[in-house]
Design goal:
The structure holds 2 protein chains of 2 kinds. Chain A is an alpha/beta fold. Helix content of chain A is about 25%, strand content about 35%. Chain A has 13 helices and 19 strands. In chain A, the strands form 2 sheets. Chain A has a 10-stranded mixed beta sheet with strand order 2-1-5-7-9-11-13-15-17-19. In chain A, strands 3-4-6-8-10-12-14-16-18 form a 9-stranded mixed beta sheet. The longest helix of chain A has 21 residues, at about 10-30. Chain A is globular and about 70 Å long. The termini of chain A are far apart. Chain B has a single domain (about 5-255), classed as Rossmann fold (3-Layer(aba) Sandwich). Chain B has 8 helices and 12 strands. Chain B has helices at about 45-50, 75-80, 100-115, 120-135, 150-165, 180-195, 235-245, 245-255; strands at about 5-15, 20-30, 35, 60-65, 70, 85, 95-100, 145, 170-175, 200-205, 220-225, 225-230. In chain B, the strands form 3 sheets. In chain B, strands 6-9-10-3-11-12 form a 6-stranded mixed beta sheet, with helices on both faces. In chain B, strands 2-1-4-5 form a 4-stranded antiparallel beta sheet, with helices on one face. In chain B, strands 7-8 form a two-stranded antiparallel ribbon. In chain B, helix 4 crosses helix 5 and helix 5 (about 150-165) runs parallel beside helix 6 (about 180-195). Classes of the chains: A alpha/beta, B alpha/beta. The interface of A and B includes residues 400, 406 and 414 of A.
Chain lengths: ~450, ~260
């Protein structure tokens, strides 16, 4: 691969930073975050964006995602706080401790700080970096350190983010909910960052929802999440994307697990423009459990790409990955999944499965399952299938009077059921089932349930 | 004078270019039970599949009218709405679709066809409960996925349960007795008999006389090489039970051997 040093796409960000570095530092006002920009710049200058066809990016060009000339709210003016106030979540009847990220600004729900249980920190990352510099210093940028141009760009230009800290032994009953919303009258690129530390023996559930308020504007999200799950801790997350056709998302989530910790992470793409999601899970202590499930529903021209790697670096860990796609219209799906078992990880159990349905002759799915094992004491498997809806099932249903379109919808919904049921946040599984049903029957995002008047 | 319910004329159908039905004629009146028997490969299941609208088959000639409506022009779901029901020889498992959702979709689709409002939830659950009793199906049926993990007997009882809910004018039971022990057979046949009235009719497709001890046919037809070659009363089934199919083959082919 020839280094495409500072392509035009990258150049605009380098120039932007050079011209505004003081303004950015001042607006962010958090030394722990500002201090990292210099290194990020040198990585970004020497690392090109991956292009379609590059190893690991067979079907998705990151360069194209970042190529448009989006606006970036460098001076942090006119943050549309009202967007959060007027937003009505599509996952109602779920009592959560909610906060919003409007474009890139943290906006807590009414009285959030007072409602947070003892031991729970859920606040702006910049504010957290000012109030708890040592904590942020210790964790920020420690997982997302690889030579990725996208992480470097995020670190270079971000101005805020979200900090979640769960103190040792604190088991948080109510789920935390983070709603990412795009709301801007002009095309916009937002840098979003999430730092989660679940201390020893603590437990927390996190629901993340991505929305777009104005489907007529082009938006781009650069999202980097670093999640530390300490010894014996438990972390459950469900991330639901429901954005517009003009929205691109480049998301990278890093999870580090210590001994005896448990994670259950789900990613659901209901609607999007282009969505590239990278999941990097490292099992660094023995007896960890990691479950990673994903579901993607593509239609029209949507492009959904999930890339996982689960690294077993310690013995006696168990990991499970299951991803399912249903692709209709001219949508495109990609799944690249990797399991790595190092020599230090005997007695590993690691499984991966991806099953996909092409509901239209124009949809395409690309799968690349990979196992890399440097150890004899392992149980590993991977499987990938891509097919069509079963004609026998469709005929059986039609013979009972169920119209063909409805039969197909019911079968697609049924196909996703195990992923839906893998979500362990109480009440969310039912809501997710409802959302998926509406997605398939075409009533999702019909604005009936939203009062944002966009 | 009896009212005609099904009128099949000169029906030809093929699968993958091979002609299976070679001119079937069949007239069924309201209130009648017809048995269709025949050796393996004679076209029995093809006939039921073609009438129900299985897209795997291609109809090349002929007509099939249900109370005057040409079935062959209709998609399978509309045939069902018009009152046709096929009990499958091999009921299909549909993991992830619960029986209750499956039946609700079926019932409401038919109501929509008839210009009626969807059924109220309470009314629907009551209907399910009533019909379940006809074939002695378990109460936890509703939450289970369609046919998934059902025993052979449960699958067939589930077919008759669906028939009971949909109240067809014409039910085709395709090898409903296959894979059933004697108790399940009695329950299934009992269910079919309870659903019988003077307005509807039943076609029983079977290999053996056994099922006909429980579901008494008015007419017995022998299908062979894609045609109905003999029609008689219940005594014809007994004759087959006793003598096998060879004498029929001999009469038709003149050799006694299948070609």
């Amino acid at each position: 691969m020839t280094a495409k040093k500072s392509s035009e796409a990258a150049r605009q960000y380098i120039d932007l930073y050079r011209h505004n570095s003081e303004l950015i530092d001042r607006a962010c006002d958090a030394p722990a975050l500002n201090r990292r920009r210099k290194d990020a710049l040198s990585v970004f200058e020497s690392t090109p964006f991956p292009c379609k066809g590059d190893e690991g990016y067979e079907k998705t060009s990151v360069e194209e995602i970042f190529a448009p000339d989006y606006g970036i709210n460098v001076a942090r003016k006119n943050i549309p706080v009202d967007a959060a106030r007027s937003f009505k979540c599509d996952v109602p009847n779920l009592s959560t401790l909610a906060a919003f990220v409007v474009n890139d600004a943290f906006v807590p729900s009414q009285g959030l700080a007072e409602r947070l249980p003892q031991g729970v920190t859920f606040m702006s990352l910049a504010e957290g970096a000012r109030r708890f510099p040592e904590l942020v210093e210790e964790y920020y940028g420690r997982l997302a350190t690889d030579s990725s141009a996208m992480v470097a760009l995020n670190t270079l230009l971000l101005q805020d983010g979200v900090l979640i800290h769960i103190a040792k032994g604190t088991k948080v009953e109510k789920p935390l909910q983070l709603v990412n919303i795009f709301s801007a009258p002009v095309p916009l690129l937002a840098f979003r960052r999430l730092l989660v530390v679940v201390e020893e023996g603590a437990a927390v559930k996190l629901l993340v929802c991505d929305h777009t308020q104005d489907s007529g504007k082009a938006y781009c999200a650069s999202q980097v999440a670093e999640i530390f799950v300490r010894r014996g801790a438990r972390f459950e997350m469900c991330s639901i994307e429901e954005s517009s056709a003009l929205t691109s998302r480049m998301a990278q989530t890093y999870v580090s697990q210590e001994e005896g910790s448990v994670t259950n992470v789900n990613t659901t793409t209901l609607t999007c423009g282009t969505s590239r999601n990278e999941w990097r899970v490292s099992l660094n202590g023995s007896h960890c459990e990691s479950r990673l499930t994903g579901m993607a529903i593509g239609s029209d021209e949507m492009h959904i790409d999930n890339d996982t790697s689960v690294n077993h670096n310690a013995p006696h860990c168990h990991s499970d990955q299951t991803f399912k796609y249903v692709l209709d219209g001219k949508s495109r799906g990609a799944f690249e999944g990797r399991i790595l078992v190092t020599p230090e990880a005997p007695f590993t159990e690691a499984y991966q499965s991806t099953r996909n349905i092409l509901a239209s002759p124009d949809a395409r799915m690309h799968c690349k399952p990979q196992l890399e094992i440097y150890n004899d004491e392992v149980k590993c498997s991977h499987g990938a299938t891509t097919g069509q809806l079963d004609h026998e099932k469709i005929f059986y249903m039609r013979s009972r009077g169920i119209p063909e379109a409805e039969a197909r919808t019911m079968l697609m919904q049924a196909f996703m059921i195990d992923i839906i049921e893998s979500v362990s946040i109480p009440g969310l599984s039912d809501r997710l089932r409802h959302l998926v049903e509406r997605r398939f029957d075409g009533t999702l995002g019909s604005c009936a349930s939203c009062n944002s008047n966009c | 004078m009896k009212t005609s319910l099904l009128d099949v004329r000169n029906l030809h159908a093929s699968i993958d270019g091979k002609e299976i039905l070679k001119g079937v004629n069949l007239q069924i009146n309201e209130g009648e039970v017809h048995a269709i028997m025949g050796p393996n490969g004679s076209g029995k299941s093809t006939l039921s599949g073609v009438l129900a609208g299985n897209p795997a088959y291609t109809v090349t000639e002929g007509s099939a009218r249900l109370h005057g409506v040409e079935l062959l022009d209709l998609p399978p779901e509309t045939r069902s709405h018009e009152g046709l029901f096929l009990s499958f020889q091999y009921p299909v498992e549909i993991p992830g679709v619960s029986m209750v959702n499956f039946m609700r979709a079926a019932v409401n689709a038919k109501r929509k066809f008839l210009g009626e409002e969807p059924m109220k939830a309470s009314e629907f659950l009551k209907l399910m409960r009533q019909k379940r009793e006809i074939v002695e199906l378990d109460a936890n049926l509703a939450s289970r996925s369609v046919n998934e993990g059902f025993s052979g007997g449960e699958k067939k009882r589930n077919e008759i349960f669906q028939m009971a809910v949909l109240e067809p004018r014409l039910a085709i039971l395709d090898e409903t007795d296959s894979g059933l022990d004697i108790d399940a057979l009695r329950i299934v046949a009992g269910g079919v008999n309870k659903l019988k009235n003077e307005r509807n009719a039943t076609i029983v497709i079977t290999h053996y006389q056994r099922l006909l001890d429980y579901i008494k046919p008015d007419f017995v037809h022998i299908l062979y090489k894609g045609r109905i070659v003999r029609t008689g009363g219940p005594e014809l089934a007994l004759e087959l039970e006793e003598k096998g199919y060879d004498w029929i083959k001999e009469e038709i082919d003149g050799t006694g051997k299948e070609d």
